[in-house]
TrEMBL record:
Matches recorded under InterPro entries: Fido, Fido-like_dom_sf
The protein's Enzyme Commission number: 2.7.7.108
Phylogenetic classification of the source organism: Bacteria, Bacillati, Bacillota, Bacilli, Lactobacillales
Name of the featured protein: protein adenylyltransferase
Species the sequence originates in: Streptococcus cuniculi
Domain named Fido: residues: 94-242
Length: 269
């Protein structure tokens, strides 16, 4: 007789340590845009970690705080919460549409007017980067975003990880993630969106991830992505390699922004 197995709702009961790790990751990733969560949000996170509050209750209380007391940390608070929610779920689809879904989930109600939510930007970007001495990465032209992502995802889906050493896998993943970031498909929030996608994808591939660099070195990570995608004269991949080796190969690189600026520009940060 055929044995039947039923599906279960994907609503994992996470340990307090896992929840704390996710909250610290969510808070840390706000540093890529120079943001910092409110002290009240940190206290609410502690309540959620020990099981006293649900995500919905945290959202209700922090929204009331923003409406009645101080909304200057609204983006950092809300996006941190949404990162924790997304990383608490195991569902994942390897496709560009997932990037759109993550962007929409993270930034609903938070983007400046004119910045599309969960859709590719309809304009070109530049951003003065201190680590490049004020130059900008050359991001994808907005007209080729969809085609570029489709190509990168197709190439990744065809890559055979079998028979590769762990070091070869990590080197390949570094190129893939850096390439997606260089496309910069959205008007705002690209690094946080790509990072959430990356963490979920690495889990699907079976990697054990050291999340501590995301908590403590998120700005280093963004600057390393900038250097990896700079023009030929300024391109330098060593800093991004160190980051990936730290989170995936258990290597203990310093990941110092000060050292990066001194080595790249000859100035102290």
């Amino acid at each position: 007789m055929k044995q039947e197995y039923s599906y279960e709702i994907d609503n994992p009961i996470l340990s307090s340590q896992t929840k704390q790790d996710l909250w610290e990751t969510g808070f840390g990733l706000q540093k890529v845009d120079g943001l910092k969560p409110s002290l009240y949000m940190v206290e609410l996170a502690k309540e959620q970690i020990v099981g006293k509050l649900s995500y919905e209750q945290v959202y209700q209380q922090i929204t009331k705080y923003h409406e009645e007391i101080d909304d200057s940390t609204k983006e950092a608070d809300i996006v941190s919460l949404r990162i924790v929610e997304l990383l608490s779920r195991s569902g994942f689809k390897f496709a560009p549409v997932t990037l759109k879904a993550i962007h929409k989930d993270l930034f609903l109600g938070l983007l400046p007017q004119g910045v599309p939510l969960g859709e590719y930007r309809p304009y070109n970007l530049r951003k003065d980067e201190p680590i490049l001495g004020g130059d900008s990465v050359i991001y994808d032209d907005y007209r080729t975003i969809a085609a570029s992502l489709a190509y990168d995802f197709e190439q990744e889906s065809q890559f055979n990880y079998q028979g590769k050493t762990l070091e070869e896998m990590v080197e390949h993943l570094q190129r893939f993630i850096s390439g997606i970031w260089q496309i910069h498909p959205f008007g705002e929030g690209n690094t946080r969106t790509v990072t959430v996608f990356m963490i979920k994808y690495l889990r699907v591939l079976g990697f054990e991830i050291d999340n501590s660099p995301f908590k403590e070195k998120a700005r280093y990570f963004r600057d390393a992505l900038v250097l990896d995608n700079a023009t030929v004269a300024k391109k330098n991949s060593i800093y991004l390699t160190r980051f990936f080796e730290t989170i995936l190969l258990d290597k203990h690189h310093l990941l110092s922004s000060r050292q990066m600026f001194e080595e790249v520009l000859g100035i102290e940060k």
